[in-house]
Amino acid sequence: MLEGILTKIIPATPGYLPKWILFISVVAIFNSLQTYTNISLTKKVYANKPEEVSSLSARTFGTWTLVSAIIRAYAAFNMTDVHVYNLCIVSYIIALWHFGSEWLIYKTCKFDKGLFGPLIVSTLSITWMILQKDYYTGLIN
Question: Residue 93 in contact with residue 124, Cβ under 8 Å?
Fold first, then answer.
């Protein structure tokens, strides 16, 4: 019974990348939900200028995070679809651009634990997906 449940909630595509993408998606969903109830964690991400974080900006950030999470969850279960795969990579590139520009250009982020997670996850995911693209998208050819 447990095996049947797990096969429905864990991507069947071989390898760790689909599971990683699903895990990151689930974490992002919880992060998104917390932005609607508490802005303190969002203020930690934008620690250089926490006064610029409002309830509205936190909820907007949460909505963007939820959209990214949905794209990534869909990709985790459709790794062989090159279009979905590319869309997932782009979602990580957008995240990297956002956090990188907030740190380097707009100076709202400190280079600390609030920024480390998004930078590590986006950089690792982009690199891993680029390196594995032929493997996963080649499964349908």
Answer: no
Among candidate residues 131, 28, 25, the one with its CA nearest the CA of residue 76: 25
Sole residue written with tokens 């049947």: 4
pTM of whole model > 0.85? yes
| Helix and strand numbers, DSSP H then E, in the chain | 6, 0
- The contacts of residue 111 (CB under 8 Å, 6+ apart) are 103
Q: pLDDT (tens digit, 9 = 90+) per residue, 77-87?
A: 999 999 999 99
User: Quick one: how far is CA 100 from the chain centroid?
Assistant: 14
Rg over CA atoms, the chain: 16
**What single letter denotes the amino acid at residue 42?**
T
